[in-house]
């Protein structure tokens, strides 16, 4: 595991994120998720093929971006095992 | 489900006049949304980058920032080429701004959807009804 000094702190690849860093990733991940759903769904509404292709490019880039953000968000101090379904019950 | 038109009736969503230039108007709106999302993404990513010290997080955010700037440029160039966006002809941009605002206000005043859109009956059950409200 690569280790290097930055200031007085020893940093390695698996270090837990600082709380404020984790919050930035929370915001980035949710923003990317919303953008992905919009770029995916709007492709069903647009008429222009070039615009649709550009949205599909955004979908592909967003999939990679979300995977990268998820991997780093996994080092949040409040990370927890992810259940298959939402943890709070859905009642009417 | 009854569809009631708000009075006075000027036009409704079935009026053929609404189909005039509709694809172009719609695409311009979607492209504008796309452009604003790309722009917001660049700003959000840059802000996140300046709040982050972790080298791994910075590397991911930096590459996403570059990608976001490139995508923003592609959308801008497409919109200029399609004449959906006029950064240099401000009078044309002004006209587009006013027209799309007016058109969207007209659409917003139409009765497009039934009053009851809950559609709960289409699903077989409440997923967690076996749990009981006291544990919810």
From TrEMBL, chain B:
InterPro entries: Ferritin-like, Spore_coat_CotF-like
UniProt entry tagged with the keyword Lipid metabolism: no
Pfam family, one: Coat_F
Transmembrane spans: none
GO BP, sorted A to Z: sporulation resulting in formation of a cellular spore
Subcellular compartments: Spore coat
Top-rank lineage group of the source organism: Bacteria
Record flagged with keyword Amino-acid biosynthesis: no
Keywords: Capsid protein, Sporulation, Virion
Major localization class: other
Homology family: Belongs to the CotF family.
Protein name according to UniProt: Spore coat protein F-like protein YraF
Organism field: Paenibacillus abyssi
Lineage of origin: Bacteria, Bacillati, Bacillota, Bacilli, Bacillales
Gene from which the chain derives: yraF
């Amino acid at each position: 595991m690569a280790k290097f000094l930055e200031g007085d702190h020893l940093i390695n690849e698996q270090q837990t994120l600082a709380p404020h860093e984790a919050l930035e990733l929370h915001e980035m991940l949710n923003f990317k998720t919303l953008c992905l759903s919009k770029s995916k769904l709007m492709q069903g509404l647009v008429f222009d093929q070039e615009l649709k292709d550009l949205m599909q490019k955004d979908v592909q880039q967003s999939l990679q971006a979300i995977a990268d953000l998820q991997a780093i968000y996994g080092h949040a101090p409040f990370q927890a095992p992810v259940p298959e379904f939402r943890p709070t019950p859905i009642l009417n | 489900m009854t569809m009631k038109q708000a009075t006075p009736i000027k036009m409704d969503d079935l009026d053929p006049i609404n189909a005039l230039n509709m694809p172009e108007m719609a695409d311009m709106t979607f492209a504008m949304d796309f452009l604003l999302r790309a722009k917001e993404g660049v700003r959000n990513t840059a802000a996140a980058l300046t709040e982050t010290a972790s080298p791994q997080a910075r590397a991911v955010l930096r590459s996403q920032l570059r990608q976001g700037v490139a995508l923003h440029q592609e959308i801008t160039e497409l919109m200029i080429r399609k004449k959906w966006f006029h950064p240099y002809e401000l009078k044309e941009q002004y006209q587009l701004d006013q027209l799309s605002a007016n058109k969207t206000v007209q659409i917003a005043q139409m009765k497009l959807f039934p009053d009851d859109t809950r559609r709960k009956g289409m699903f077989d059950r409440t997923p967690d009804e076996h749990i009981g409200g006291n544990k919810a």
